[in-house]
């Protein structure tokens, strides 16, 4: 089964599919979501909180199938990469 990175920015956003984390990071940095302040591990959300997106209005990011169904959350190494790659946002 092929895994894709799925991202949704905010509770009103649409899910976007990416082939790898690098492409997802480019997209998130273009949107100036900000640096990771915390991780959300379900049950309703798998993703991150940033200065601009938190609580129910967070950023969902996970590995899923071609339909967007969750396969797995980001692992420890991928989380560290996320924390080191997302840029500070100026509010």
The tally of structural domains comes to 1
Rg, nearest Å: 12 Å
| Largest sheet entry | 6 strands, antiparallel
Helix % is 10-25%
Strand content: 25-35%
On the 0 to 100 scale, the average pLDDT is: 94
Brief summary of the model shown:
By secondary structure, the chain is an alpha+beta fold. 22% of the residues lie in helices and 29% in strands.
Written description of the protein model:
- This protein is of the alpha+beta class and 91 residues long.
- The protein has one domain (4-85).
- The protein contains two helices and six strands.
- The protein has helices spanning 21-30, 76-85, and strands spanning 4-9, 16-18, 38-41, 46-49, 59-64, 70-72.
- Strands 1, 2, 3, 4, 5 and 6 form a six-stranded antiparallel β-sheet that branches.
- A hairpin with a 5-residue loop joins β5 and β6 (70-72).
- The termini are far apart.
Keywords:
alpha+beta, globular, about 90 residues, 6 strands, 2 helices, 6-stranded antiparallel β-sheet
